[in-house]
Sequence to fold (221 residues):
Amino acid sequence: MQVGNARYLKPGDLPDTIAVFPLGGALLLPTGQLPLNIFEPRYLAMFDAALSGNRLIGMVQPALGDQEGGEGHLAPVGCLGRITSFAETGDGRYIVSLTGICRFRLLEEKETHHPFRTFRIAPFIADLSARDEEDAVDRAALLAAFKAYLDANKLEADWESVERASNLTLVNSLAMMSPFGPAEKQALLEAPDLKTRAETLIAITEIVLARVFGDSDTVLQ
Fold:
């Protein structure tokens, strides 16, 4: 996988320890791009450290129902991202874009002198070759659910760009931009493969349409 100027092809290309950025409701997936506005001092320090090192950050949500946010328990699975764009605002903030590389499972927390949290991780190596899974995605069903959601909410899309997107880009981009809650986003993150993530995204969309409009079958026709 090529991400920015770096290539990640094998386990040795990935770290076994990573600083993590806990952020509820934020979803990063392989090949996806996540914009971030960094202003807390400890996370400014995290990004300073990443920029002077391997440019890698682990995005992870707080555990569902955890009231302590990033200070308490974290969700077991997150996504490794590389800083692929970076700007200083002049008022003490960073505007950053992370590009997803692969998911990881948190193992144990490491004690460090840094103000941010660092964990040993087990990367999902199969994510580095996820394009092999693209043919298994039901693209027509995914696009039908996407269109139904747009129509129901009177929204528009750049359909030329959608049609040009690969199945990998389409599934992960739609999952990341979806307006669903932390539980649904964690389910999308933890889907075992691209096909299952697409099916999960379709199912969640149908549930939302049925809840709001009463009959998802009618909306999807």
The chain has a mean pLDDT of 91. The radius of gyration is 18 Å. Residues 191 and 197 are 5 Å apart (CA to CA). The longest strand covers residues 94-110.
